[in-house]
Amino acid sequence: MGEWYFEYEIQVNRPGLLGDIASLLGMLRVNIVSINGVDEGHRGMLLSTENEESIQRFISIVSTMENINVTRFREPKLRDRLAVRHGHYIPRDADEKNTFRFVRDELGILVDFMAELFKKDGHKLIGIRGMPRVGKTESIVAASVSANKRWIFISSTMIKQTVRNALMGDEFNGNNIFILDGAVTRRSTDERHQQLVREIMGMPTIKVIEHPDLFVQHSSYKIEDFDYIIELRHDPDEEITYEIIEKNNMLSSTDHFGGFEF
Questions:
Q1: Whole-prediction pTM
Q2: Which residue intervals define the domain DUF3388 in the entry (predicted)?
């Protein structure tokens, strides 16, 4: 059974408009999987049918309706599914198409977004930018749980500064989610840790790197190597800078309790 994403802009919001569209779909034996407002004045639908001719007839008819303007009709993308589920589109950078922006109030959408990425097999390199205590690590862990994947910290400051220099047992499983703190890894002078990072980067699995801009400094990797960049802010106007992040990492690596290396 094929699926399509259909979105239209309401030109005249007259009574019975949605009912007319739903009735037309019913007559053509096209199922409405889900429906929601996706932006102001826009409504999105996920549709399914076993007969592709029916969906083409539907689009041909609905495109002539005076009260609406068809804005999208295509095989559903991840952003389409999340827009219908949550009621609005995830903002995407106009120039960098693989950069997606969230604010802290949208952590539920972010977790859903990453969980869908985590469910796909094979290599995927994901970077996540954001200031301290905005919810980066918690979102990655929650998305791993949602995707039914095991997560492994290679470097982190979630509890104490952690720097791994080896994996044990089934931790090399390609079904795991590997999480790195780019600032911690960049500062590490442990060659065993750096070798482990190189091994993991070469594995056909999912890697999530916090502070990707710091990670690529003094390394063979480039920001263009990332399949997705996620930016998480407390509010839409927050500037993501690295002075505080670098200072926090320096303090956590030099305090009298020390960190974990294993």
A1: 0.83
A2: 70-258
